[in-house]
User: What shape does this take?
Amino acid sequence: MERDKQNLQRTMTSRHITMMALGGAIGAGLFKGSSAAIDMAGPSVLLAYLIGGIILLFVMQGLAEMAVRNSNARTFRDLVQSILGKYPAYFLDWIYWKMWVLNITAESVVAAIFIQYWLPDYPIWILALSVSVLVTVINLLSVKAFAETEYWLALIKITVIIVFIIAGFILLLVTFGDHTAVGFSNLTSHGGFFPNGPTGLITAMLVVIYSYGGTEIIGVTLAETKNPEKVVPKAVRSTLVRIISFYLVPFLIIVSLIPWNEVNGVPESPFVMVFKMIGIPGADHIMNAVVLLAIISSMNSGLYGSSRVLYTQAMDGRIPKVFSKLSKKKVPVYSILLCTSVLYIGVLISLFAGSKTFDFLMGSLGYTVLCIWLIIAIAHVKSRKKQPEQTSAYAVKWFPYTTWFAIIALSAILIGIIFTTSIIVTSITLAIYIFITITYVFKGRLHQNEA
Assistant: This one.
């Protein structure tokens, strides 16, 4: 009976988790990271996002199949542990937690910067604190209230992106007034489609993977999703189509309208630059508001994901049981508060670290998303050998070729990124992974001594 009281409620629907995945993936990576990706790869950034989208499709299909085969799973660890063993599951849980905590840390400061655009007299730390408290309160409400908030925040972002796409194609293809249709000549007229060669494309893949990261949060919603064996595959299909559309098409518009070498170094987002070309009054304020909502939405998903990792760890006795305690609204209140406390500490560190904080965190987060996708893909390859007798209502077509493609592509990207990324980012990320591994070994020895 006590166990039932401590169980999360299955109140999230396909509509909720689809928008949650979009909320996690359409955030600072799209609106803030777009300039960096375009500067690295030029027009070939389109190819980078297409490759990333195909890899994401194959990884998420595998995740959906494993979720359907294991309907009792609550999170990633439950899907992976029975297939790959305890260490990969442990490692996956903690790097996933680290990913979201670092992400919401970076985005709280970025959100404060965008708010300061309207409130220049307020210091960054007060605005960052305000955003952090707001996101915490939303998560402490019932799961349904959280999901509804995330749904509407994501819907606002998507609506604006759709308006952006329509207006962008009008600017590209239609001549009116003083405006002459630009067409697609900018894709090749400034150093070619690959102005920085293959190295630029490979380097941009780190931003691409970071940008798409967050979609796999569907794997954390299993314990709070009605009929996950039906809902998860449907959400995966609809989410992937929308994410690839909302990245590829906007980037096509940006690099076609604006020469790629004029995007970086400008303080405003490429999205604001295009809106100004449209001639909408107050375009900078409109896009500033949209970017702010996008970041709050991504933080919202991030705090949800990180707190659920702690909750399941506590339920299994891996961390103190207090973190499995639920409020009357059936949310893991102490897990949320711990993640929030780390967020506040991170905000202070980010403020002292200066303007490069987001770039460093984005690099580390890109590595983490790569590792998460690799573990999911490897688990999927082995899953049918572990459970060959089970028939599934959802099965990946062309298995195992699609999943092996994802594994090989991710491995190649990882090797390329190691040689093209800052040694500081790589070293810090490696140190975090080593620390997680040491804690696993230490806990194992501790349990052996107790036995």
In short: The radius of gyration is 22 Å. The first helix runs from residue 2 to 5.
